[in-house]
Write a structure and sequence with these properties.
Structural class: alpha/beta
Number of helices: 7
Number of domains: 1
Oligomer: single chain
CATH architecture: 3-Layer(aba) Sandwich
Order of helices and strands: HEHEEHHHEHEH
Strand content: 5-15%
CATH class: Alpha Beta
CATH topology: Rossmann fold
Amino acid sequence: MKKCKNSLLICLLAVLLISNIIIYAPYFLLYSSSYRKADAIVLLLGPDFAARQKEAYKLIDEGKADYLIIPAYHKVYRISDKRAVKSLSPDLSFRRSIKERAMHNPSPYFYEDTHIEIIEARKIMSDYGLQSAIFVSSPYHMRRIKLIVANVFAGQQGGFYFVPTVYEEAPGRFWELSLNNWKKVGREYVKIVWFCFYMLWPQ
């Protein structure tokens, strides 16, 4: 009887734990930070590029940086040249060229496109002598981006800020998520877990 009660208690605790994980899973991903004027805005690519681009333009209009970097394009724009900045259009084929270049260079190691872009951003910032950046991406991606930035820029001086676009739907309450939102959340956790394992794996 006592064994049965213990088993029931363990089951209840497991259900409670899993329920809490599900409830807080979307909210945990929605990381953002306060920010101040930085040397650059780093705009990361994705299928929802228009929403991210709109957020970057808002930061530009607020005077929050001197440069706009799109690492997947390997492009740097001085924000004073607003005509060039505002003429940007997404070209996802640049992801392929970045990945192909990175694959021929075994160091630093990378594990997926966003990691490659942030490595590229670090190289560009180093070339231009830039030390601080505001990273702009989709809301559910920001926790992973923070982890990658902490790894890629480890030991470097400078301020790093994280601003998710407000122009893309990303509910934090689990009961508000659509099936498509849950797919995004699930993919993010797979990528975070893989990144953590990847960085611990002997290179």
